[in-house]
Amino acid sequence: MSKHIEGFFCKCCGKYHDELPMSYGSPVPDYFYDIPTEEQESRVEMNEDLCIIDDEHFFIRGCIEIPIVDGNEPFIWDVWISLSEANFNKTNDYWEVEGREKELEPMFGWLSTSIPCYPETLNLKTMVHTRSVGVSPFIELEPTSHPLAVEQREGITIERVKLISEELCEGGEQQ
């Protein structure tokens, strides 16, 4: 998780935090939570970046970057995107290939992470932009009126990042 140098007083827990979290994420695609615990091992194949469920649902982890208009670095939502089997296989084939970002065109996908602090984000349309080996793909949201898409286009303030942190604190989801 990236951190911003500036600390803040959290209205939720009443404590001063030395650093403002600049990224939050989900360890698995939301669909994973629909699988009974006793079936997960047999139905899910995954690592930190790629996930296959039931040999028919294919996911890649990437970053929705939100510019901070009064800051130096973006705020990041670490999310999962579903891809077609063909695009997933192509991505997997190039996973460790230097220069892969020049070989793979942007790919369509569906956002497969329900992001707190927004109206429902599941199944928002995205484009997955491959980056160099070792760097998570950049996730571009379809330019709609959804608040997350608007924030990706227009940016947010440090104050908005603080509000997100406080909201996630209330939900016990701060990472």
From TrEMBL:
Entry protein name: DUF2199 domain-containing protein
Organism: Oceanobacillus chungangensis
Biological classification of the source: Bacteria, Bacillati, Bacillota, Bacilli, Bacillales
